[in-house]
Design brief:
Elements lengths: L4 H9 L1 H17 L7 E5 L3 H4 L7 E7 L15 E4 L7
Parallel strand pairs: 1-2, 2-3
Length: 90
Amino acid sequence: MHPDILELARFYKSPLGRMTRDILRSQVQAHWDPNLPRSMLGLGYAPPFLWPYLGSERVVAAMPAAQGVLRWPHQGPSATCLVHDHALPF
């Protein structure tokens, strides 16, 4: 079961969601330096953690069909796609 995409977006805009995002983002960045060229694929509601990687060679936020999809980033070309759990990576 996947949470609704709008609920996830609301959560990450809340104070608790921003704190959660900051903690998780720092853990991701500790393993993958956002200043190095790379390709990044985030599965699920990954935009809160992918922002630092927008300058990378490729960045894709793959959101499960059962969850729904939102456009990300809000400006410029979209880096999101809708995926089916049984057909990964695409």
